[in-house]
Amino acid sequence: MQIKKRLFVALLSISVLFLGGLAIIVWYLLTHQGILLNQILFTLLIGAVVVFLVIIGLGILFLVLALWSSGGIHTPQNMMLLAVNSLFPIALSLGQLVGIDREKIRASFIAVNNQLVHNRGVHVKPEQVLILAPHCLQWSDCPHKITIDVNNCRRCGKCPIDDLHRLADTYGVKLAVATGGTLARSFVKNYRPKAIVAVACERDLTSGIQDVKDLPVMGVLNIRPQGPCFNTLVDIKEVEKSICDFLGFATKENTFSDGLNFRL
Ligand code: SF4
Question: Is the C-beta atom of 135 inside 6 A of ligand 1?
């Protein structure tokens, strides 16, 4: 397990302990402060919280096993997803409380997600894979409206959209460029992909992955040498690796000699 993934798993574990501690404190206060409560109802409530925490705890345990064994040990996806999705906001707040950067926690979540998607061994046909790219990858002075139709790109090589086109052609997958979550959702609705390779910043990738829970999404972080949302770049090799993961074969030889696009 890499350090990036450990951070998120550690925060999830602390979150479940935090919730457990909170439940014990509430239980103690309510039973020792002379507040009149229906004892049966109260016990049932605490019982439900305990059952929830046990399920979440098991979810984290399975998550650790899945990451540690790289998919070698079969673990229940639903429990892991429940643990990740229900504890993610708490993990994010707790991490911030102890001074860990939000983006670092989100990047850790994305790394965990990618590993879990890889472990699932999803293999689909090329036309069922969609590369979903953000508009900020497009060269800021480009006059062509590629969000309406990505084929409006003239493939001049001034931005990574050209490389993404080349990848889409090489592997026969679909490509779409979205300006935000609403357009991204409409692309998913229209193209009906079985797997998505999404390029975006930490925040957009995290919300996107959580948005389409049922679809396997591999997230690739964009690179922001000129600040957020402006002339961003992407490691094209990472995108290629994710596509090939879904197609079930190794990357084609010499598709890209240089993973990073620094042509701006
Ligand atoms: S490759 Fe050229 S034409 Fe295509 S989006 Fe980038 S700048 Fe525009």
Answer: no
Question: Which residue positions in the chain have pLDDT lower than 70?
Answer: 1-3, 30, 32-41, 250-264
**Does the C-beta of 240 come closer than 6 Å to ligand 1?**
no
Q: What is the DSSP string of the chain?
A: --HHHHHHHHHHHHHHHHHHHHHHHHHHHHHHS-----HHHHHHHHHHHHHHHHHHHHHHHHHHHHHHHTTSS---HHHHHHHHHHHHHHHHHHHHHTT--HHHHHHHHHHHHHHHHHHHT----GGGEEEEEEGGGS-TT----TTT-GGG----SSSHHHHHHHHHHHHT-EEEEESSHHHHHHHHHHH--SEEEEEE-HHHHHHHHHHTTTS-EEEEEEE-TT-TTSS-EEBHHHHHHHHHHHHTSPPPTTS-S-SB----
Domains of the chain, by residue range, sit at 3-119, 123-247
Query: What spacing in Å lies between the alpha carbon of 155 and ligand 1's midpoint?
Result: 5
CATH code 3.40.50 for 123-247: yes
pLDDT of residue 127: 96
d(CA 23, ligand 1 centre) in Å: 55
